[in-house]
Inverse folding.
């Protein structure tokens, strides 16, 4: 028994399911009354107009509310600065979205249409038709008749960028000369004076370091004693600048320039612990060569020759701290480093950096 089937027509292959057609168009309620259209127009303008006001308020809050002020909200403690800035900026974004949605649903054209799918590659005629449809869509938005909406939306989007830009201030303070002198170019040793020196203490036990207790070849990790007066993050900020190493070498085996004759105590020298390349802490000490090796990128400094660079990517000598002893024989500092510690930066003055051969 044989079965015979009739081939499907092209139309049946293209449309295997009956076309339900376009449902009857239901007129929007707002199109039935011109007064409703004018009210919707005012509502969209109000939403777009209120958004930049909230954005400006967020900008004012960013600068006006102290960073240490807190508020309690449903049992949670949060910085008032973060709460109000986020609330106002988030509300500004929300109003832009609400205004756009309200505009599209109530004021733009409500015409429905059906269009057959076309091949991926469009013909020139199709492209021209698409451009014509785009122009028609722009006309359907009603911008030519509702310039107030366009102006309010432009203002909302434009001023919305203001609070975003001011948040760049959170990247840090502007590196003015006075700001640098107060922060990265100053350590806790700056508090020392000849009448009130700062003692050098062990960085784990806080015990004062006596010159007589140090042996030749010994290295001690240390810090200023006044670091214990700080609390919280201030401790880490200041320790990252004031961390030091103290080494003792045979005085006849090292080179001490004339300008630094009073910077040591019987061959005991003090240097910054922070590498001048990218700021890694250094403590890999080679007793025989007097070299200090940075573990990050292998910059090597000769502590027996004023901390000059002998190998690696570091471009500046390791800063040396002038030290002496008090009446109890403890190591103390009478002042700060003569050059900023840590990595280089564009504004840094290099005239006081020590170079091999300087006197």
């Amino acid at each position: 028994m044989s079965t015979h089937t009739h081939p499907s027509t092209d139309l049946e292959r293209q449309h295997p399911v009956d076309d339900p057609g376009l449902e009857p168009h239901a007129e929007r309620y707002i199109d039935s009354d011109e007064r409703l259209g004018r009210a919707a127009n005012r509502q969209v303008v109000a939403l777009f107009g209120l958004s930049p006001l909230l954005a400006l308020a967020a900008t004012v809050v960013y600068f006006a509310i102290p960073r240490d002020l807190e508020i309690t909200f449903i049992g949670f403690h949060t910085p008032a600065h973060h709460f109000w800035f986020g609330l106002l900026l988030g509300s500004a974004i929300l109003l832009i979205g609400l205004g756009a949605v309200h505009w599209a649903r109530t004021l733009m054209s409500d015409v429905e249409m059906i269009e057959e799918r076309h091949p991926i590659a469009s013909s020139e005629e199709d492209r021209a038709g698409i451009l014509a449809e785009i122009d028609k869509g722009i006309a359907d938005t009603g911008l030519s008749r509702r310039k107030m909406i366009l102006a309010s939306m432009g203002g909302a989007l434009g001023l919305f960028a203001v609070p975003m830009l001011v948040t760049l201030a959170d990247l840090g303070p502007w590196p003015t000369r006075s700001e640098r002198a107060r922060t990265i170019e100053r350590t806790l040793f700056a508090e020392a004076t000849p009448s009130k020196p700062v003692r050098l203490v062990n960085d784990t036990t806080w015990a004062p370091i006596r010159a007589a207790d140090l042996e030749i070849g010994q290295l001690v990790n240390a810090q200023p004693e006044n670091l214990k007066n700080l609390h919280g993050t201030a401790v880490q900020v200041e320790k990252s600048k004031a961390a030091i190493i103290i080494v003792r070498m045979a005085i006849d085996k090292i080179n001490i320039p004339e300008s630094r004759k009073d910077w040591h105590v019987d061959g005991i020298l003090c240097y910054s612990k922070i590498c001048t390349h990218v700021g890694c802490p250094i403590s890999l000490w080679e007793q025989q060569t007097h070299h200090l090796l940075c573990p990050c990128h292998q910059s090597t400094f000769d502590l027996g020759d004023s901390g000059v660079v002998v190998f690696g990517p570091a471009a500046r000598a390791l800063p040396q701290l002038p030290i002496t002893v008090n009446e109890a024989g403890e190591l103390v500092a009478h002042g700060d480093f003569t050059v900023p510690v840590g990595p280089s930066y564009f504004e840094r003055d290099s005239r006081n950096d020590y170079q091999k051969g300087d006197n």
